[in-house]
Design brief:
alpha/beta, Nucleotidyltransferase, domain 5, five-stranded mixed beta sheet, 19% strand, globular, binds zinc ion, 43% helix, binds 5'-O-[(R)-(carboxyoxy)(hydroxy)phosphoryl]adenosine
């Protein structure tokens, strides 16, 4: 089975073709970072319009790169939600329209399920069950995953997501948007222990997170130190990253302990963070557990994870649906998605 995947939930247009027998055949991505840079964040209307411009050329490129044709596509998977309403509508309408014209079925995919399954897009994927740490720009969740479509939320953020905390902190350090990767590169040059920031909810006894206070603590720190030494911001970035990573690592290990599971899977944009990876590697190794990450290019939004999630859903027995009527679901929770399928 060949599944074409379409992702357009935020500021990346992603298209990919996945074959259940031969794996990922091709994928293409267009990032809108440059388009939104001047505004310091994603402008929804500009995002929607750009998705419209990019989808057809990206589909053509994926078909050419995989030496495939639309006739050879068995189903079209697309991100139905959550995300920006207009941006989602573009992908939904495009996928359903194309599938209708081709007489092929569609597979609406929950964006977080795409992230969640993306670490399985490797030569040696983890087996179920596993604990998943999902850390993206919009979400931070710990989940117990027992199979495709079988996700139990253990805990989640009560305010800012991990990626959002990275982006907001980067912004207040003058690093531009989205600043997560830039902030983490700056943190590599900083020294641990120069500044001590709070570890929010580290001892809350549950699997929930809260990162809004951490960002405010950075703001207070920067305001109270009229320092001009060149490595001041690097030390602040390091303190922020150390605090956030410590909370993510300790809660992930606690989730492994709580569930008795031995496998941890990390997904989402913050999963690209090297400090997080190093700390998780060490902590899981100490326990004799194992950890999986997505390929670097599949940590942030992409079409490959949507095509793959569509293919995994088919393989797990969730039926594709006839193309035609559709609704974007900007505020769709993973819990609702699991309960409905
Ligand atoms: O998964 P994703 O594309 O977003 C959502 O679906 O919400 O992840 C984007 C997020 C942004 O907040 C970005 O700053 C963050 O991932 N990010 C990073 C790194 N690379 C991307 N955060 C920390 N360290 C990185 N290396
Ligand atoms: Zn995402």
């Amino acid at each position: 089975m060949r599944v074409l995947g379409i992702e357009s939930s935020c500021d990346e247009t992603g298209v990919a073709l996945h074959d259940t027998e031969h794996g990922l055949l091709a994928h293409a991505l267009h990032s809108q970072v440059a388009l939104h840079a001047d505004y310091g964040g994603v402008v929804p209307e500009l995002a929607s319009r750009d998705h419209i411009r990019r989808l057809v050329p990206l589909v053509r490129r994926v078909l050419a790169d995989s030496q495939s044709t639309l006739d050879a596509v068995d189903a079209i998977a697309y991100t139905q939600g959550p995300g920006l309403a207009g941006a989602l509508l573009v992908g939904c309408a495009f996928a359903e329209g194309l599938a209708s014209a081709l007489g092929k079925p569609t597979i609406p995919v929950h964006h977080l399920e795409g992230h969640l399954l993306s670490p399985l897009l490797t030569a040696e994927p983890p087996e179920f069950p596993f604990v998943a740490l999902l850390v993206s720009g919009g979400h931070t969740q710990l989940m117990a995953v027992s199979g495709v479509g079988r996700y139990q939320t253990l805990g989640e953020t009560l305010d800012d997501a991990a990626g959002e905390a990275f982006d907001k902190t980067a912004k207040l350090l003058g690093l531009g948007y989205p600043g997560g990767a830039t902030l983490s590169r700056l943190a590599e040059r900083g020294r641990s222990g120069v500044f001590d920031l709070p570890r929010p909810m580290l001892h809350s006894g549950d699997f929930n997170f809260s990162f809004a206070g951490l960002k405010t603590a950075v703001l207070t720190l920067v305001r109270n130190h009229a320092e001009t030494r060149p490595d001041f911001h690097a030390d602040v970035a390091r303190a922020f990253q150390d605090a956030l990573v410590e909370v993510l690592v300790k809660k992930s290990i606690a989730a492994l302990q709580h569930t008795g599971m031995k496998r941890l899977v990390v997904a989402g944009g913050v999963g690209a963070n090297l400090a997080l990876r190093a700390r998780l590697d060490a902590a899981t190794r100490r326990r004799g557990d194992r950890v999986w990450y997505p390929e670097m290019e599949f940590c942030t939004d992409n079409g490959a994870m949507i095509a793959f999630a569509g293919a995994m859903r088919l393989a797990a027995g969730f039926p594709a649906r006839p193309a035609g009527a559709f609704a974007a679901r900007p505020r769709w929770s993973l819990r609702e998605c699991v309960e409905a399928s």
